Amino acid sequence: MQALYRELAPAVVQYLRVRGMDDPERGCQDVFLNVIPRIRKAKGIQAFKTQLFGVAHARMVDQFQRRATSPRAAGYPPVLDHRPVPPAEGAAARTGSWVENLLQELAGDQREVVLLRIVAGLSIEETAAVMQRTSGAVKELQRRGLQALRGLLEPAEGDMP
Questions:
Q1: Does the residue 89 lie in any domain?
Q2: Potential cystine with 141: which of 32, 43, 48, 113 (Cβ 3.0-4.6 Å)?
C-alpha cells in the first residue's frame, strides 16, 4: 500500500490543488483512507486509479457544495490594513506554478478532463466514469481544453518581433 501511495499521492494532491481544494494534502489522505477498505475489489492498478480519482472528484464536489451553502466571511478593507509586511495569503496565492495558473484559465469541465487524463493518467473511459459523462463528451472536453491551452501558450499574431 505504501508503494501505491508514493506513486499516486503526488498526482492526487496536484489534482486537488488545481481544482481548488483548501488543503490538498489532507484531502489526499482522506481519499486514500476512503479507498483502502475497497482495495481488494479493484481489478488492477488502473481500476484502483479510477476508484481513487472518483473519490477525489466526489470530495471536490462536496467541498464546492459546502462553500456554496456556507456563509462568507466579511473581508477586511485594504485601506484599514496598516501592517508593514504584506499579508501571507497574498504571497501564498502568488506561489502557484505557471502550469496551475494556465489550468485555472480553462472552463471547469475542461480543466477536470485535462487533470484526470494527464495528471492522473486515466483513460477516456475511466475519466468518463469518474465524471459521469459519456466517452464522447470527455473527448470533446479534452479537445477544447487542449485547444484553449494551446491558444494561451502560442503568442498572438503581432506579438512576434
A1: no
A2: 113
Tell me how many domains the chain contains: 1
d(CA 83, CA 77): 13
Domain encompassing residue 40: 2-71+98-152
What cell numbers appear for 18 in the block?
488545481
- Interval 58-93: pLDDT, tens: 888 888 788 778 666 656 566 666 666 555 555 444
Do residues 129 and 49 make contact, with C-beta atoms less than 8 angstroms apart? Answer: no
Backbone angles phi, psi at 120, to 5 degrees: -80, -20
* CATH classification at residue 67: 1.10.10.10
Whether residue 103 is contained in a domain is answered as yes
Q: How far is CA 18 from CA 11, 38, 101, 142, in A?
A: 11, 26, 8, 16
CB 54 within 8 A of CB 34: no
